[in-house]
Design a protein that fits this description.
This protein is α/β, with parallel strands linked by helices. The chain is 43% helix and 20% strand. 42% of the residues are buried.
């Protein structure tokens, strides 16, 4: 009995370390918290072990029972240590980081890709992943100094879409853009002072496209923006000077998805 408790405590301690980026990178593992994320990770076959409190086991019995992964019953104190939220759910999975590479994505002749450059706010990054999934994008690339997509806040903001759309990390943004262009995608960048209005870009949007989105505070760097085939601005009739980067991504990717769908019909 004592040996089992010691083993369980050691598993909890090892899992808690995955709250840190460096530990996730070294282990190739991350934590998914809550029934929605855990269910999505289980469906993808990424879960390696589950931690569940007694209360959570009762509430999510259908999700926990019968799983072919180790399930550890833990105390509320341990569940709180494993949690990354103010109100712990009592259900946390240790998951394997997916192995999809940029080469895998490009080999599939993608028609729509989102490239987030230097997006270090996890809520924005996770929302962009959710948007890309909704719009049928082939992948999301977190380029430059972007946030770790397996950060807890980013995972929650993706609402499980991170398990549906391939997400890759690429520190060298310029090199990534060269690879995307070589794969037949045009590269479009959003900019407040873009030379083309999104309203006038219908023909261009019918081609396979990689969209570049930079941080809303200062936008894309000159070096990265210079790599784009076109810089587009979103026309705004109100007094707002700019949009949240996730909102801009939603507008641009919707327009691209619509144009690509219309192009398939003609």
């Amino acid at each position: 009995m004592r040996a089992a408790l010691t083993e369980r405590s050691a598993r909890v301690v090892a899992a808690v370390k995955l709250h840190r980026h460096v530990a996730r990178r070294r282990a190739g593992l991350f934590l998914a918290e809550g029934p929605n994320l855990v269910a999505a990770a289980l469906q993808r076959g990424l879960v390696r072990e589950l931690f569940v409190s007694e209360d959570a086991e009762r509430r999510h019995d259908a999700l926990v029972t019968g799983q072919r992964v180790p399930v550890h019953l833990v105390t509320e104190r341990a569940a709180k240590a494993l949690a990354d939220t103010v109100t712990p759910t009592g259900l946390v999975a240790v998951c394997q980081v997916p192995t999809t590479s940029l080469d895998d994505v490009l080999a599939g002749s993608p028609r729509l890709v989102a490239v987030a450059v230097d997006i270090n706010e996890p809520g924005n990054a996770g929302t962009m992943i959710r948007i890309a999934d909704a719009m049928g994008a082939a992948a999301v690339i977190l380029a430059g100094h972007s946030v770790d997509p397996y950060n807890g806040k980013c995972l929650r903001a993706s609402t499980g879409s991170i398990f549906s759309v391939p997400v890759t990390v690429a520190p060298d943004a310029v090199a990534v853009l060269s690879l995307l262009r070589a794969a037949g995608l045009q590269v479009l960048a959003t900019a407040v002072d873009g030379e083309i209005s999104l309203d006038d870009a219908d023909l261009a949007l019918g081609r396979p496209t990689a969209w570049l989105f930079g941080p809303e505070a200062h936008g894309l760097s000159d070096e990265v923006a210079a790599q784009a085939d076109h810089r587009l601005r979103i026309p705004m009739a109100g007094a707002a000077e700019s949009l949240n980067v996730a909102a801009a991504a939603a507008i641009c990717m919707y327009q691209s998805a619509r144009a690509l769908k219309l192009g398939q019909r003609t």
